[in-house]
Amino acid sequence: MATVTAAAPRIALPGFLRRPAARKLVLLALAAAVLVPLAAARWASGSWPHALTVDLSGPLTSAGDWVIDHRDSHPLFLYFFGYISNAVVLSVRVVYLALLAAGWAGVTAVGALVAWRVAGVRLALGTAAAFVVCGLLGMWVPTMQTLALMVVAVFASVVVGVLLGLAAGLSDRLDRALRPVLDTMQVLPAFAYLLPVVLVFGIGVPAAVLATVVYAAPPMARLTALGLRGADPEVLEAVESLGATGRQRLVTARIPLARKELLLGLNQTIMMALSMAVIASVIGAGGLGDRVYQALASVDVGAALAAGIPIVLLAVVLDRVTGAAGEKLGEGHRDLRPWAYGVPVAVAAALAARLAGRLDWPSGWVLNIAEPVNRAVDWMTAHLYSGVPYIGGTADWAGHFTTWVLDPVRSGLQWLPWWSVLLIVAALAWLIGTWRTALTAVLAMAAIGVLGVWEPSLDTLSQVLAAVAVTLVLGFATGIAAARSDRFERALRPVLDVFQTMPQFVYLIPVVALFGVGRAPAVAAAVVYALPAVVRITAQGLRQVDPAALESSRSLGATGRQQLWQVQLPLARPALLLAVNQGVVLVLAVVIIGGLVGGGALGYDVTFGLAQGDLATGLVAGAAIVCLGLVLDRVTQPTERRARKGA
Amino acid sequence: MRRTTITAAVAVLALTTGCGAADMTKQASPFANAQGAKTVTLSVQSWVGAQSNVAVAQYLLEHELGYRVDTVQVDEVPAWDALSQGRVDAILEDWGHPDQEKRYVDDKKTIAHGGDLGVTGHIGWYVPTYLVEQHPDITDWKNLNKYAPLFRTAESGGKGQLMDGSPSYVTNDKALVTNLKLDYQVVFAGSEAAQITQIKQFAKEKKPFLTYWYAPQWLFKKVPMTEVTLPPYKDGCDADPKKITCAYPHTPLQKYLNAGFAHDGGRAAAFLKKFKWTTEDQNEVSLLIADKKLSPQEAAKQWVDSHPSTWKAWLS
User: What is the CA radius of gyration of chain A?
Assistant: First the structure.
């Protein structure tokens, strides 16, 4: 039914209505008027009809058993997956041993040297300080484990991404074929595919690295393709006129011209891989993520923070260094002499520490931050949880939020007849995109029903909608403030960095301590995670509004408020829409984390599947989250962005 | 010398992976045996009791036997899988997984039984003791419906809330609530951390709550709780999880080792097989970790220093 509804525009009535939006809606209404009574009579008019579901638990369970029983004998595992797995283990091990052999002084010196050459003195000092803090927090060995994992994962993601990007950049047909694949990879919440990876590779480093590659390769691929396609045609023509072959053109002109995009891709890949390092701890990746996860088990926010800070530091340092490298590109030839001074200094530092027998971080040099942090958290939760005069405690807010917002939205969604949900999805997606977008969205929504998880998916959807609403209100307000005040934006930047890179596990305990167990803390966690992106995009969008338009409105005597509402916001509309889209996708990514604090629904099912090795529950819920992601992405993704993204 | 170890490792691994089949059932963690140390990898489950076992075993392995110990936090069922693949060497506290036992211990023989831990585990429904003082008859399941309004929360949809924990734990609670016709809604906290945090918040305000919980557990020392009696457990009464109407059994907790490690693990394997202590011992360490916020190493050191006779027997 879904297919027909969305494909209907082909038999359009040209010129019947002026506005395309109205035309689309009328067409949809016509199609619905014919199909809905049929569908409702044939099946049912309430929740998703049972006749249209497929029970996958039998085949999935036997598939899981087959993998476990054949993992040590079937050629597919012995000669394919086994090699991949061994190669990953081997390379992580080599990097890890190298890092250990360099010792803390060596790693710090080399890190600072690289940062100095690539990004200048300030970042070099920052890098050295970051490494020292990792050591001071008593996290040296886990930091090195995470670093080893990251090096390998980023390297693999870059290789995969560049290959895909080359294919998409050089061939239009491959580009069209790859675009939906990359789209889907980016919308997929990472948790959803941990389970299949674990089933094949078992828990541990190989599974973690591979899951990271799936997550981190798409931006590299996308930006590589973008760089290749965006190369200046005049330069290419000039090269061609010199008689260069296709391969020469690629190597001498197109790739060098795409350097900026390639570096930006590297930067994005590193950031995504780091955020995955923590999620991967759930499947035994070890390192810092595992320390955060273990601290969580003893409800120790302080210890979790001690392991979370190195992750934030690594992320900030890597982000700034690769970012600075991108900006420095094209500044002409590098002076090689400083390397000649720097390298011996770094080597000497490493050797000195080594000869002094101080290869491991000295055990006495450790700051214990866990205790004061825990005291602060205890104080905060003790005083805010309930009984605050006039405004009530956080627990009361959470209760009100659940009964007044989450419950009505959830019961409203679950009350809607199944076909009307499909219609709403079709209408929204079609209004904002093309009929293809609408088709994808409706098919994805229908797939949720077919998988038999209609009710929990709508429960999850209600949480996502509530969280997105809160995120947008807070995010737009903060973004507007940041766009209007430079000082505020500078002060905000490190806060956003921390929110964006701090592993979500760290704030699970505080949100439960503040809001109790249930859906409210899940929403709170999602808001914290999605807010930075929304704030950044909003602020950037407002700042890019044409100054001439602002100037002219000011000369007409508009007040600040009028300027904001009548000039800046309308002109920044594309950026605001992008912020909505990102907010939705990021909120959905935390749904699983919500399952860990009582959010229930799909998030709980995925964690249940992972914890119990239950493919039937876990994979189906994971697939439903993916479908929900596609629906939400298509419904909020304007056509202009789609066109631009593929350009 | 380190360089030669690296080269040797590369060469050996290249040879073993380069030719012939790559055996996925025999793969250690890449972080194991670094710098030429003998490493034991232990799996830690998310509850504090499991952390205590591992902390003490780790301390003794490192300080008395000269091993380097890696720990990995994994849920129970995936931990069995990891154990069979050799990614971890031992699980020190297993609450009973008959399916996994049959598959890996009996059929595949990739996991070996490592003996009793010495601690007996029990799952049940608990209410805080301060509530029992007000309503003494609340500890019988037959009276639970009468008190359901007391346990109502925003999440329980007008019914009483029975709080369950992590998705990795063994639970029949949904079936029990239905089969015993209780006016309750099972709300999953989703992780033990969330559950403990919520219990502490309830206790701070002396609010009523009903929760799935288990012993041995350090939290009893902080929040005294009393078990609600469910219909008694008989052998086989939990065979069909859909029709279940009885309480949870008392389980003597078990240790399991990777079969290869059990065979060639030398003194480490022998020590882990002999490791056996009491509920009181475990709780002592757990309380140090979870309540006094000592690091697991420090907590283990305190216990080891004060109980030499217990652990000396494990090393002989």
Answer: 26
Strands B111-128 and B250-258: antiparallel
Alpha-carbon dihedral A528, B191, B258, B13, rounded to 10 degrees: -10
DSSP state of B140: B
Residue type, A304: A
Helix (H) or strand (E) holding B160: strand B160-164
Contacting residues of A for B75, CB less than 8 Å apart? 610-612
Comparing CB atoms, the residue among A148, A290, A299 nearest residue B193 is A299
Give the minimum alpha-carbon distance from A353 to chain B in angstroms, rounded to a whole number: 15
- % of chain B surpassing 90 pLDDT: 27
Which chain B residues have a beta carbon less than 8 Å from that of A68? 81, 103
What does the radius of gyration of chain B's CA atoms come to, in whole angstroms? 22
Q: Read off the pLDDT of residues A112-146 as tens digits, 9 standing for 90 and up.
A: 888 888 888 888 999 999 999 998 888 888 899 89
Tell me how far the alpha carbon of residue A166 is from its chain's centroid.
Answer: 23
Cis peptide bond prior to A219, omega within 30° of 0: no
The dihedrals phi and psi of B251, each to the nearest 5 degrees, come to: -115, 120
CB contacts of A283 in chain B (<8 Å) are: 74, 78
CB within 8 A of A400, min separation 6: which ones? none
The answer to whether the Cβ–Cβ distance between B10 and A382 falls below 8 Å is no
Q: What distance in Å separates the CA atoms of residue A2 and residue B208, rounded to the nearest whole number?
A: 49
Nearest CA in chain B to A384: B201
The dihedral through the CA atoms of A413, A416, A421, A423 has a sign that is negative
| Distance (Å) from the alpha carbon of B304 to chain A's nearest alpha carbon | 20
The mean-pLDDT minimum among A192-201, A360-369, B61-70 falls in: A360-369
Closest CA to A222 of A253, A184, A190, A182: A182
Find the residue in A nearest to B41 (Cα).
A286
Q: Say how many residues make up chain A.
A: 647
- Whether residue B70 has pLDDT greater than 70: yes
For residue A258, the tally of other CB atoms under 10 A from its CB is 24
A527 is written with which tokens? 């808001």
- pLDDT tens-place string over residues B199-221: 988 898 888 999 999 888 888 88
Structure tokens at A318: 């890597």
3-state secondary structure of B229: strand
Cα atoms in the 13 Å half-sphere on the side-chain side of A59: 5
- The first and second tokens of residue A353, run together, are 């520490």
Q: Which of B48, B70, B87 sits opposite A297 (nearest CB)?
A: B48
More confident residue, A342 or A221: A221
Lowest mean pLDDT among A196-205, A340-349, A373-382: A340-349
Q: Helix %, strand %, coil % for chain B, to 5?
A: 45, 20, 30
pTM of the predicted protein model: 0.81
- Three-state secondary-structure class, residue B126: strand
A532: left (phi over 0), alpha (psi -120 to 50) or beta: alpha
- Please state whether beta strands B39-44 and B68-73 pair in parallel, antiparallel, or not at all (unpaired): parallel
Among B43, B54, B95, B197, pick the best mutation site for testing chain A contact (most A Cβ within 10 A): B197
The CA distance from B278 to B120, in Å, is 9
CA B278 – CA B285 distance, rounded (Å)? 11
